């Protein structure tokens, strides 16, 4: 499990990181930054691409990324082949992002969603797992085929 943010998502990222570290369903969490010591060290694109590449390469399974809106980190992560990332600020979208779309990356916007809602949504998200035997699989495969992976 990876977490990351830019400066605009740093506060939420820190809280979500602490939650994940306490969650018995999560075996290991890696913080990709940014850090309190160097808040401006990377933009949302750099952090999100690093997270997405780690998932693509099998070094991690999922990631939660935070920026101001959740949009920038989602766009950047989706540029990495094989990665499906989305911003989701409601329970149903969080569920469907996994069960319909097999998204490995959930993103939040610190300037958009309340902290307690984001924390709850992250907990819900952890409980979902895509079923490759479901009817959604062939729809996801259309995207994978386009990407050639
Ligand atoms: O999607 C982009 C994010 O919201 C980012 O945190 C803020 O970007 P901006 O400073 O260009 O608005």
Automatic annotation (TrEMBL):
Species name: Phycicoccus sonneratiae
Range of residues in the leader sequence: none
Enzyme Commission (EC) number: 5.3.1.6
GO MF terms held by the record: ribose-5-phosphate isomerase activity
InterPro entries in alphabetical order: Rib-5-P_Isoase_Actino, RpiB_LacA_LacB, RpiB_LacA_LacB_sf, SPI_LacAB/RpiB
Keyword Isomerase carried by entry: yes
Pfam families in the cross-refs: LacAB_rpiB
NCBIfam families to which the protein is assigned, alphabetical: RPI_actino (TIGR02133), rpiB_lacA_lacB (TIGR00689)
Keywords of the record: Isomerase
PANTHER family: RIBOSE 5-PHOSPHATE ISOMERASE, RIBOSE 5-PHOSPHATE ISOMERASE-RELATED
Family of the protein in this entry: Belongs to the LacAB/RpiB family.
Protein name, UniProt field: Ribose-5-phosphate isomerase
